[in-house]
Write a structure and sequence with these properties.
Blueprint lengths: L12 H16 L4 H32 L5 H49 L3 H5 L3 H14 L1 H28 L1 H8 L2 H36 L2 H9 L3 H24 L2 H27 L7 H42 L21 E8 L9 E8 L4 E5 L6 H7 L8 E6 L2 E2 L5 H7 E5 L9 H6 L7 H10 L3 H6 L17 H15 L3 E5 L7 H15 L3 E5 L11 E6 L2 E6 L1 H7 L2 H12 L4
Parallel strand pairs: 3-8, 3-9, 6-7, 7-8
Antiparallel strand pairs: 1-2, 1-4, 4-5, 9-10
Length: 600
């Protein structure tokens, strides 16, 4: 038996995906179906009132005026005025409710995307441009606003209006109705072609907007400006941005003009249809066909115009929905991102954390990479103990530190806190237990106090002062014109590297975690600043389990245990004195530091 022949135009993968995507979009409105039901009732009422008006007009022209019935004429005229008032009131109410529902859906989408991104592993952000993320949340969701806030109401309103109008037209004269409806299939076909074209252009336009957003985010940040100015690339960056903007101009024009001529043809034909109806009625009368009264003819043409307006709106809505599907697709791509780091179904909660850290035969590799970053690492840090991890660049030191707070998850083995695999702990316990101070300190564009309270929102002013004093930064803060209310600037650029580091340490002291990860916290500082920061670190690490990732070995000599990593494996371990006696890799690193020290 021969297999069925393939269709001449097989459906594209996008066409197969559209029904599922539309169903998913409709699910966004499910929590608000009660309000949408009210909108539907208002729409139905407005449609019925609108359809009734031409019948009142017919009675005025065929009965009230010819027969001189003034009372009936007044009553019918009053009915037409009342219909206009009711239609306007219903329109205002349905706009209020539908806009509210649409904005709630927009809020739900923004929150869902932001929440999803908050749960992504650090690896996602290392391979994704910040501007791309911002574009998805701001531009893509913002671009859907008209569709989400008004399309559902417009769709229901226009569809109800079309059905009610067609029924009324048939009641008046079914033959004229057939003439009117002959061209509708052609109009639908044209609108679908326009919608497909708009969707393709919208996809390209949003990608281009994401590229521009990434360029702006990277080049107009404080760091980007400093780099551009010092490298003499300001003009080059401006030209690059101009080129990207020029591409966007072309896509915006193409998006605006896509299908304009086709839709213009539809508008012209619809505008000419009353003339066709008058011509058809005249020919029918001339050749002995059924006579149509003036009132019926005027009422029918009025209904016909009432049909064409929602029909054109429906076609335009279809085009808009097609274009918006591209935006929804980009948002759903983020909502469908696999979450690498998840909380277990029955997480373990530790009321009191002692602080024992154990790396048990730990192995790690990044997705898509065959080489192992860590391989067979076995280390135990007792409660209150200190571990220093040293080694050459690329040895896996920072990755090892990132495994404790679950910025990454191990590929092999396990990392435990007080004997519990960190993957089995609830996120709240882990966040309270492990504090991280890294080389790259991040400060929000807010006041000093707000930055410190990010660690503990309910901290008192006295607690802020105490933490800042322990971090050796209080005296500098109070010397500022606004003290703790001083705004730190974008990424804290109003403060020096050492000051930012001490603010980060004060923030961690305020949080008071029993386990501390110091990821090369002083490697970018000069010797004098390093000494001040080290005093702050000494206050921070007292009575805490500490894992120090170090480039400068002067900061780790007092550690209870020093581990030398090389190519992801433990090459040596011991105290500072024990490792010096072995005269191995650690001793070589110490000698290298000694040679470099005078140049600092």
């Amino acid at each position: 038996m021969k297999p069925d022949r393939e269709p001449f135009w097989p459906p594209s993968p996008e066409a197969k995906e559209q029904p599922r995507q539309v169903h998913r979009i409709l699910r966004l409105f499910r929590p608000y179906r009660g309000r949408l039901a009210v909108v539907g009732l208002l729409v139905a009422a407005a449609s019925l009132v609108s359809v009734a008006t031409p019948f009142l007009l017919k009675e005025i022209l065929d009965v009230a005026i010819p027969e001189g019935r003034t009372g009936l004429l007044s009553l019918l005229a009053l009915g037409m005025i009342l219909g206009a008032v009711l239609t306007s009131v219903f329109g205002v109410l349905q706009t209020l409710i539908s806009t509210t529902v649409g904005q709630r859906v927009m809020h739900d989408l923004r929150t869902a995307v932001y929440g999803r991104l908050q749960r992504m592993s650090l690896a996602f952000f290392t391979r994704t441009r910040t501007g791309e993320i911002q574009s998805r949340i701001a531009d893509d969701i913002g671009g859907m606003q008209a569709t989400v806030t008004s399309t559902a109401t417009s769709l229901v309103s226009n569809l109800t209006g079309v059905v009610a109008t067609v029924a009324a037209m048939i009641a008046l004269d079914w033959r004229l109705t057939v003439v009117t409806l002959l061209l509708l299939p052609v109009f639908v076909w044209i609108s679908r072609r326009v919608g497909d074209e708009r969707k393709r252009i919208t996809t390209r336009r949003q990608k281009q907007m994401a590229v521009m957003a990434a360029t702006v985010t990277e080049s107009l940040s404080v760091s980007g400006i400093l780099l551009g100015r010092t490298m003499g690339r300001s003009d080059s960056l401006t030209r690059t941005f101009a080129d990207e903007s020029e591409r966007l101009v072309d896509l915006e024009v193409r998006s605006s003009m896509a299908g304009r001529w086709r839709m213009a043809v539809i508008t012209v034909v619809m505008s000419a249809m009353p003339a066709v109806i008058y011509w058809t009625a005249g020919l029918a009368l001339q050749f002995g066909g059924p006579q149509v009264s003036i009132g019926t003819l005027v009422a029918f043409v009025s209904l016909q115009q009432g049909l064409f307006r929602p029909t054109v709106s429906l076609l335009s809505t279809g085009v808009q929905i097609q274009a918006s599907l591209a935006l929804f697709q980009r948002i759903f791509e983020y909502l469908d991102l696999p979450i690498d780091i998840t909380e277990p179904g029955n997480p373990v909660r530790l009321d009191r954390v002692k602080g024992e850290i154990r790396f048990d035969n730990v192995g790690f590799r990044y997705d898509g990479e065959s080489g192992a970053v860590l391989d067979g690492v076995d280390i135990t840090v007792p409660p209150g103990g200190s571990l220093a991890v040293v080694g050459p660049t690329g040895a896996g030191k920072s990755t090892l530190g990132h495994l404790v707070p679950r910025l990454y998850d191990v590929t092999d083995g396990r990392v435990t806190l007080d004997g519990v695999d960190v993957r089995d702990l609830d996120f709240g316990t882990l966040a309270r237990a492990v504090g991280v101070v890294s080389q790259e300190t991040y400060l929000f564009h807010a006041s000093v106090a707000d930055n410190l309270r990010f660690a503990k929102p309910d901290a008192t002013d006295e607690e802020l002062v105490e933490a800042a004093g322990a971090a050796q930064i209080h005296d500098h803060i109070v010397s500022l014109p606004d003290g703790y209310d001083t705004v730190v600037g974008e990424r804290g650029h109003r403060f020096s590297g050492g000051e930012k580091q001490r603010l980060a340490i004060a923030r961690t002291i305020l949080r008071d975690p029993p386990v501390l990860i110091l990821d090369e916290a002083t490697s970018a500082l000069d010797t004098r600043t390093e000494a001040a920061v080290q005093r702050a670190i000494d206050a921070l690490t007292a009575d805490r389990t500490t894992v120090t990732i170090a480039h400068r070995l002067s900061t780790v000599r007092g550690a209870d245990q020093i581990v030398v990593l090389d190519s992801g494996r433990v090459a040596e371990r011991g105290t500072h004195e024990e490792l010096l006696e072995r005269n191995g890799r650690y001793a070589s690193l110490v000698r290298r530091d000694a040679r470099l020290e005078p140049t600092k």
